[in-house]
Write a structure and sequence with these properties.
Elements (H helix, E strand, L loop, with lengths): L6 E5 L3 H11 L4 E5 L2 H10 L4 E4 L9 H10 L8 E5 L4 H10 L3 E4 L4 H22 L1
Parallel strand pairs: 1-2, 1-3, 3-4, 4-5
């Protein structure tokens, strides 16, 4: 992993979406990808994550909303940026995710340039806030 790149953890259950996002984001970030909640937790323990990209619907596993709430309740990641990337298009879904602690809510399909820009801007904004608070 490159030390001058942010580390981003993407959890997505759709293999085609996971592959596409991986190819796009891997150029800009140290990217960890998984479609498995247990592996997600392992990455959270083994690495320092700068941003989470979370799909809301994770098949038969926990929901993305549950993961957001768990991250916000954790000491290590309570202030780490979380971006939801989902096919859920209702305003209610966005409101619930933001209330749970997500920083951004992006609807699929997401333009690749916009995705990279949103991740970078969200990380930088949160880092400014951490510096200001510290």
């Amino acid at each position: 992993m490159s030390e001058n790149k942010f580390t981003v953890l993407l959890i997505e259950d759709d293999s085609m979406t996971l592959d596409i996002f991986s190819r796009v984001l891997n150029k800009e970030f140290n990217l960890l990808v998984t479609n498995d909640v247990n592996e997600f937790y392992k990455y959270c323990t083994d690495f320092i994550i700068d941003c989470f990209l979370i799909d809301l619907s994770l098949g038969l596993q926990k929901s993305g909303l549950t993961l957001i709430k768990e991250l916000r309740a954790s000491e290590k990641y309570y202030n780490t940026p979380i971006i939801v990337i989902t096919a859920h298009a209702f305003a209610r879904d966005e409101r619930v995710c933001l209330e749970a602690g997500a920083n951004k809510f992006l609807r699929k399909p997401v333009d690749h340039t916009r995705l990279i820009k949103e991740v970078k801007n969200t990380i930088l904004k949160m880092n400014e806030r951490k510096t200001f608070i510290d």
